[in-house]
Structures are given as C-alpha cells and as structure tokens.
C-alpha cells in the first residue's frame, strides 16, 4: 500500500498544476494512511500566508497543532483550521508537546535567534524538526541543533524550499551533467526594500544580521547548488548609508565574492535598499539566467538553449511532502541541518571578511 501511495504521490506532485487539481482529501480517500501531524511554531507572515495554506494541500502531512504567544491568534487559527485545544501551546508550556501523539513534526517559523532554542526543545520532546532559514545565528548554534536532533533520533530539515522545486533542480542538474561544460562564473543577488522599520529583522539580537541572514542566504545557497561545489575563500564589503536605521550588527548592503576549487568565481549583492532577485550562471559553452530566481514563484529563466519551460509548483507543498516522505520512510531528507550549517559557516566567514577587509579561507 505504501509504495503504491508513494508512487501516486510522486506523479501527483509532478503534475499537480498541469491537470485539474485533486484535493488532498480525494488523495487521502484513495490512499488512506496516517498523515504526519505538523505543529507550526510562530504564527507570523510566513506561517500564516505560506505554510498553513500549503498544509491544506499536502498529502502526507497536515496541520494539527500551533504554538503561539498571542492568545487571539490561537482563537483565529483554532476556528480556521479546526485545531483542538489540546494541540494549542504557548512558548512556556511548549515542552508538554512531548506527551502529544497527534504531533509528529514541529516546524519552527520564529525570528532567527529563536530557532536554536525551539529546535532543541522540540528534539528533546522527541519530535522531528523543520526549521526555517537561516537555521541559526551562529555556527555554534547550528552544530548544537544537529547534535540535539541526532541524540534524540529525530530528523532535522531546514526550510530550503527551492531544493524541492523544478527550476532549482534544473540548475543543480546542469552543474552535474555539464550540458554547457563546467561552471566558470556565478552572479547571484537577492535584496528587497525593507519598509517595516520596527521589524525584528532590524534587531541584531533577534535577526543575527541584516539582509544576508534574511535573503542573501538564498544567493549564497544558489552559488553552491549552481556550481555543485563548496567555496574555498570569500571576500566582502559593506556599504551603510543610514546608520540610524541599520544599527551595528545589521548590514544595509553587502557585496561578497567567492572562489571555488574548480576555479569558478562568484559575485553577490544583498540589500535592504532595493528589490533585486537574479541568478546568472556562466558555463564554458553557455549560460543560464533566472529572474525571479528565489521567490515563491512563478520563477522564470532561460539558458543558451532557450526559455526554461518547467512546472510552476507550490514550493512549500513540495518541500513539506519531501521532508515528510523522508520521515515516513526513515531516509535522509535532502535539506538536512548539515546543509544549513554549511551556509552558516560561509555567512560567518563573509561577515569576518567584511569586517577585516581581508580574504577569508573556509
Ligand atoms: P514574522 O515577523 O512575520 O513572524 C515571526 C513570528 O514570531 C510572529 O508570529 C511573532 O509573534 C513571533 N515571535 C515570537 N517571539 C518574538 C519576538 N521576540 N519578536 C518578534 N516576533 C516574535 O516573520 P516571518 O517573515 O514569518 O519569518 C519567520 C522566519 O521564517 C524567519 O526565520 C524567516 O527567515 C523565515 N522565512 C522564510 C521564508 C522562506 O521562504 N523560506 C519566507 C519568510 C520567512
């Protein structure tokens, strides 16, 4: 039964936007099997407008619990998603989740500096963990999160949703199959004009940094998947025009460069000053250009062979299906803590390079 359902779900995920959409309920009726229960921790923008709606379309997991510090939100979500009182927690009583068999997976969607604490507490409660990017605000925290999940024998997955969607998979494939030869150059940049000046994103204690932690991490991750290589050194520069808004510990605009073992080089910008979102990959015999390259979609791109005609999918649905499939079948997920840790090590090196003005080996 399991295999049949899994095979069906693969096909379903691959074609869901080109054929009339089957509802998750119809799939469940055809292939009854327990869905993993997911609890969202932190009911802000991303949980509200992306993850919760996605969990209404997933076939192997569903929203069964919430963790929030705001009682009014609990009331709204309880009604909207039919969540029983016994599956509603706050940040203080969260650890009691250990005694709740409805909840298999805890999805941490809090400000960056809270990821570490809630991942450790979820692991201690014996729950699998999905944690948003950036996985932590330091390498040390990231390593502790990986160790805690290993010790508790639970999976840790980072919410790198792009790894589950077709355009990104094609960029990865080109690095591997070398249709256009070796990668020689990458330019990857992501920024947006931050308008909410009260946001936790501008508080270094909660964010751990500026746009690099928030969206620059996508450009960093893109250089790694576009080359299929790990950088060997970084250089970086920051520009701050509004120090009254961007306090110490929060960069405003950051430029950085990386060298790769093959000789490929990359150049990047991340900023809270302007909207930009692109990926350019130069190969020996061609190139790829995507813009937008990291949004929820639709993503758009072309290569030397023409327009990239790929399925437009709901990233968060495929992400959670992929992670929960790994949990159900007891196999490694494709965005583990180690993937997040690699980015954290590079971010620390980039911040160090920006501060010292020197090339930093990694
Ligand atoms: P948000 O500000 O909209 O939500 C944060 C939530 O945390 C709110 O519900 C807030 O009430 C709660 N919270 C608890 N303690 C808090 C505190 N001390 N200060 C501030 N808020 C507190 O933020 P968001 O945009 O939903 O981002 C949450 C996480 O999700 C971040 O780590 C972010 O990087 C990540 N994210 C990922 C994606 C993606 O595409 N993968 C997109 C957006 C955000």
From TrEMBL:
What Pfam families does the database record attribute to this sequence? GFO_IDH_MocA, GFO_IDH_MocA_C, GFO_IDH_MocA_C3
Is this entry keyworded Signal? yes
Q: Where is the GFO/IDH/MocA-like oxidoreductase domain?
A: 170-281
Instruction: Name the source organism.
Output: Arcicella aquatica
What name does the UniProt record give this protein? Answer: Gfo/Idh/MocA family oxidoreductase
What protein family does this chain belong to? Answer: Belongs to the Gfo/Idh/MocA family.
Question: By its UniProt entry, which PANTHER family does this protein fall under?
Answer: OXIDOREDUCTASES (PTHR22604), TRANS-1,2-DIHYDROBENZENE-1,2-DIOL DEHYDROGENASE (PTHR22604:SF105)
Query: Which keywords annotate this record?
Result: Oxidoreductase, Signal
Where is each Gfo/Idh/MocA-like oxidoreductase C-terminal domain found? 317-362
Signal peptide limits: 1-29
Gfo/Idh/MocA-like oxidoreductase N-terminal domain location: 37-160
């Amino acid at each position: 039964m399991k295999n049949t359902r899994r095979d069906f779900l693969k096909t379903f995920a691959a074609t869901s936007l080109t054929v009339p959409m089957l509802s998750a309920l119809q799939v469940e009726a055809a292939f009854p099997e327990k869905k993993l229960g997911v609890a969202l921790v932190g009911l802000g923008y991303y949980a509200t407008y992306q993850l919760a709606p996605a969990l209404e379309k997933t076939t192997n997991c569903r929203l069964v619990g919430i963790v929030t510090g705001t009682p009014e939100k609990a009331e709204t979500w309880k009604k909207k998603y039919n969540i029983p009182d016994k599956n509603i927690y706050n940040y203080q009583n969260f650890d009691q989740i250990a005694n709740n068999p409805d909840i298999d997976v805890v999805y941490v969607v809090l400000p960056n500096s809270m990821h570490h604490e809630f991942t450790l507490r979820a692991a201690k409660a014996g729950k699998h963990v999905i944690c948003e990017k950036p996985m932590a605000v330091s390498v040390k925290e990231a390593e502790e999160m990986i160790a805690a999940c290993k010790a508790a024998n639970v999976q840790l997955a980072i919410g790198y949703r792009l790894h589950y969607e077709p355009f990104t998979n094609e960029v990865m494939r080109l690095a591997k199959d070398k249709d256009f030869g070796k990668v020689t150059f990458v330019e990857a940049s992501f920024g947006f004009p931050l308008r909410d000046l009260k946001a936790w994103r501008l508080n270094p204690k909660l964010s751990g940094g500026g746009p690099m932690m928030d969206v620059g991490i996508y450009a960093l991750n893109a250089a790694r998947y576009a080359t299929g290589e790990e950088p060997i050194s970084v250089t970086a520069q920051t520009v701050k025009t509004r120090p009254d808004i961007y306090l110490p510990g929060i960069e405003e605009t950051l430029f950085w460069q990386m060298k790769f073992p093959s000789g490929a080089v990359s150049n990047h910008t991340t900023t809270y000053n302007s909207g930009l979102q692109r990926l350019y990959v130069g190969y020996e015999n061609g190139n790829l250009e995507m813009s937008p390259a990291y949004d929820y979609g639709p993503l758009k791109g072309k290569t030397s062979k023409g327009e990239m005609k790929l399925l437009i999918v709901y990233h968060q649905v495929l992400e959670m299906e992929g992670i929960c499939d790994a949990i159900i079948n007891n196999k490694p997920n494709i965005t583990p803590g180690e993937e997040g840790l690699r980015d954290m090590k590079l971010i620390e090196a980039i911040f160090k390079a920006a501060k010292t003005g020197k090339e930093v080996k990694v």
